[in-house]
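Support reply, case 0932

Customer input (verbatim):
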Amino acid sequence: MSYTVDPPKGFQFSGSYRGDGADSESLELRIDWDPISEHAKSLHVLSGDVFVEGKWQFSFFVKKPAVETSDESNSIKISGTGKVWDAKSKVNIEVAVVKGDGDAINATVNLTIDGKQRSFTCPRYSKFFRTVSMEIDFTSDKLYLPTYNTHMHSSHPPLLASRDVNLFSAYADAGVDLQLDNDECTLVCDPDPNTAWTNSELYEIQEKELEGEDRKKWKIWGILTEKYAHSSSVVAAMFDTKTRQGFGVFTQAGLLCNLPATLPSPSDPEPSTKEKLALRQFLFSLVHECGHAFNLQHCFSLGRPNSLTWMNYASAYNRVNGNDAFFRNFEFSFDEVELMWLRHGPYNKVKPGEGNWGKLSPAIIPAVLDSDDPRSWSKLLSFDIRVAKLQYSQMEPITLECRLRNISSHSIFVETGFSPRYDIVSLFVTCPSGEIRQVNDFDSQDLVEPFKELHPQGSADGPDRHNELVLLLYEAKGFLFKDPGSYKIVAVYKSADKELISNEVTLDVIPYGGNNAQVILQRFFQDDVGYYIANGGSRAAKYDSAKQFLESLALQTKDAYWAGALVAETLPAYAKAFKLIQSSKQSGKVDVEKLSEPDYAKLIKATDSAVQFYKTDGTKHDNLLYTRIVLQRAKLLLAANEKDRARAEVEDAINAMERRGLKAFVAQRIKEVWLEMCGEAAPKVFDVKAWSKNIFLFQDTNFDPDDTAYGDRNREFTLTLGEVFSQFNEKHLAASTLIVNEMFNLADETEDLKSVIDYVYELQHGRMYNQDMVKFAFALFVIHHPLARKEGLRYPENTTPAKPSPFLETRPAGPADESWMNYWRNDSDFVYHHDHWHKVYVGQSLPSSTGTHLDRQGELFGYMHQQMLARYDAERHAQGLPGVIPYEFDETEPEGCDLRPIYTHPYYQPRPAGMKWDDNNIRQFRQWDYALNRVVETGQIIGPDMERINLRGPQVDSAYFGPNYYGHIVEATTSTFYTYYGSLHNMGHGVFGSIGQPPRRSSYMNSTATAVRDPIFFRWHKRVDTYINRFSGTLSTELAADAPPVRITANDVIITSSTFPPDGFGNFQGSDWAFHNFSCEDVQTELGPAKFEGEFGKLTHKPYTYHIRVARTDPSDISNPLYLTIRIFICPADASEERRRWIEMDKFRFILPAESLCSVITRQDKHSSVIRRNPNEVHGDIDSSTTVSGFCECGWPYSMLFPCGLAEGEPYKLCVFISDNTIDQQGIRTHCGSLSYCGAQGQKYPDKRQMGYPFATPILVDGKSVGVDQAVSRLRNMAVADFRVVNTDVRYGPPTSSPVKQYDKVAWYAQDQLNISRQSPYVASGWTGVLRVLVQGLAIEASGNSIVIQFEGRGLGNGGYVIANANIGKREPSTLNITGPSYTIEFEGNDGTSMTIPEGGVKSLPIQMPFEEDEDYFVTFQVLRPSCFIRNPSNTGQTLYSQNGGRDVALLSNWVSAYDRSLTNIYAVSKIFVSS
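Our regenerated output:
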């Protein structure tokens, strides 16, 4: 013989046994040892029920008995000691189980209780422990019961097996054989299906369906209907008066409204997320309510909020463990406590309909928790109860006001629903006899997320308290205050793992002293009256007597206002059509009869006394009850078509209560309820964009980050509420991951942004987590989740206008220093770019499903910041500052950074000057420096498992593999390689952020949102870039091998202010372009005053367009299209040989069509691939499809696309490099963000070349290492042209301080001289060379000593033209020459040598010269690029002369002997002004 836990092989003996003994006794025995099914858990318990003549006597249980098996493996002996339920009696039991033939299993039982021995012979009759019949009636066309696969929704335990679960399998796993009686399941024919069901109606149909023997059986009844009258938030309820045998589930409440029309089958399309959630909730509600029928309680009400069971609320569990935590861990089972009850609990309490609605154990008032107890909320909330007065008469309704109040300095989200039916508040009444009664409502309702925000005390945002009124009259065990005497009331508020104990209220109940008191009292304290009142009335015939009695009491009793209040409690049953049940089992259906309208006048009259009393004599403590009565009457008056009277009563009530101190927000809420009731409420619109913006703007002004009292509320994370969150901190990123995942899961489950907004709002106002971390997590959600992008949510940018400041109005004096770059570093668009980019490329905190675009994050990190440095150095050059110097680990940084008063931040502080890293940091970073340089030397990195990964060489399959890997370890996008290479970039930010800072503060460097404001950012990134540069310097790129068969020269690349190329630019003759004398216009930039808060100035530029001519190198091969990638870069002219100084300006795909030798490409700067584009300006981009989506907010600022340049013009180089798009695989851009800097949403980086190509690495041409100039000279697909960037600085007023004359008087007008219409059309000419315009003295209308000359533009869309060496002088009479001095014509931002005349024309600078009437003048200028234009030849006149009359005219200083030819109506110089 041996002890074993496992049963003999092939012999499963758990289950139910039944047999007889002596003296008419019988035994139901349950053996729970071996699993009865795959998913059923064994408890190792024996239990049983003893009956005498079929009547139950007692129940017992034995835990962990001893089990012995025979050598023959066909018999088992079980023995142990236990006890009788609800008694002190001990039980000794011996059971011999023998397996007979076939399936026969018999047990011989010897049971000894208190010395009395009983013997029974019991055959096994079921493998289950209970057998229960089930009837479910329904109001839809057919019975719809859900089956749910445990993997249907993505939220499930990772190790949970996939299986189908339904109501019956869930109970089978619990050991209960729940059997659906299909013959009894009945269609309920409701003539008014849109009217919700009340408790009394549901109870009536249950009474009809469970008549007679059904009440005595182990049977549960349920009904599936659409709506519940008492609350639209309740998905299921029990409504028995005394027992639990029935329930209802409401398929139009909460998530259930998304149920699919029919139960999905395997062949159907996959249900939507909402349908999956609805099916899961439907199943959960059915199992949960059946559990109540077995007298199981809510886990959270029994102190087990962390229990993963059918009997918990998911919301209660999630409040403790995080959003969606319940279903991510729930294994679709009951817990062991519940299994013990279901299988082995006492017969008289487990049997449906047998036990009273109550707790499992006697009610005991809890001891008051100490304020330091972790289960106490006493430091954050107060929970008070009060009654309107201290003395009541018998029968008088006692209403208890429960008030939960926020006493902290921050918002708190609390659970509401203070009626005991919700199991959130427990009420205990001590009776005059000393008995303690727990108030147990006879109905139970399951709420859907009953949460409410309580604002800080005194907050203007909303109320700091929540009040509810609970009627204390009648409960499951009868009337509460029946006997005269002194009573005490205490309430316990329970939420998640917290409890609050209320104050104690004492009141006296005095004998009723009216006429016929004994008769009235006897009638009043009958159960039908109690139920009639407590359940909101009923029109069932059996309550007619109770109704008539109460109405009589209200109408005939002196001072019967309180009786009127009782009648008011019953009005809900009369404010809607009552469903009278007519059962007809034989027909297989239940008919519902709609009763005629009640006697409204009598009901209203019966409650008049209550309304009048509380209006005139009530106190502020009666306000809640008064409101309740008035709104109940209002429903009845509306049903009686007396809307005006109802409105007047509501308004009178509000006015009366306001006179006795009703708070404004409460009055407003009453008005809103009334408007909703009568259908006049405005539709509620949830502005998701506004709420999203508020989340980012939220500042917890009442929160002191130095208050350590809040430090442990964030216990599951690695940073406290007061810490400064940093995206550069790996632990902070890891801490944010949970919140990010919660948001993504919520959005995926609900497909509703409001649920996410509500969740984030709760986190912010509830001070559960670090506020900056919450904002960061929400930013990732907004940027990356498809639903957020679909709804147009945006990560906010700075739009607060700059305020005037004397600090910004004074031109800096002395030599240039770092402050001269403040305008650039603090540009709001630039700051936003850097911050937003790091939120796009933040793979560690994102769900894996959103990370496709991260495939080359390491490489892009290096490239984007290298480009930032190239632009910064170009800007510094224009300001007279040297290039950025890399930071050395051991240096003392002398300057610091203090941007006050222009920029301030509550957490990110100025960085002190003269600071140095500590020795530990210096030592650590030098180790990482050595390790990173070793990677450059060896071309290998050491992986987490000591493996060596090659970053270059023949085994590397892509040009970007090495730079990408290396960028990953330099930035440290992951901790994978931390052991050897650390987190140099990120931790460097952290060191700078903390150096010289007090606790819970940081400098600008610790945040992606502020780091670029500090000059040390660029020195640090220059250090980081040295590693990237060293690695890329070990690589090389051959540019000649895969060049496409196209050619391009310097003359083929121009920048103009016109969106149209100049005349002749596209003329192609034979095998070449017709003209080769085109050049770039100057790019005009402006430094203006600050536009947004925190800025020191604003750099902008005029719009420009690239015009690029491309031709095939082999004109004979034009049968196929050429797929090309056009890459545009610029560089300061004196740095053009430094490949890392080249700035990417654009990159796009272009297709040269088949049968085309050449093409002109026009590309506006607003379509640049590096900028953050305006979605409204995508039209016209040759590289875009019609779809606009993705990271629209990501990219370099358009306003900063060009460096500022110099006032006198800064020479720049423009490079166009054309590569083979079939190799690049550069895709069409389908989003409005920067393709170059941000990649493509949901896609891998759309360019196979290394980022920055062709300048990414040292250049090879035909195997030889060459510089940029040499590459240009050797490659036909690469061209470089010259241009200038001309800047005007108007930050401190006009660019010069001298008085400016106003030149507004027209002294000469060309068209007047020519006598032609000012609207006459013109035609372009192809003229170049030296031209001379005649200004006839007869047409001059005003003289002066200084003039301004206007050169006319060619009009919008027609392009500009370029002139040089412009001057004006007096004409020598009767010749084409000038006599006397000539005066140079200069233009703003130009030295007089050349000037682009833009499409809109341009005025010269003032010319100091005598200008007299009756004198002729010549304006002479050289046309460098075609051309001026001529008026329609039909007009006459003579105003312009050219040498030799050809297209190209020699530049001559004297025209005396030259052959001349005049042209008519050339209209280049249009006006001459003199000062007024």
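We compared this against your earlier run and they match. Two observations from our side: The CA atoms of residues 1153 and 1373 lie 58 Å apart. The two ends are 126 Å apart (CA to CA). Please reopen the case if you see a mismatch on your end.
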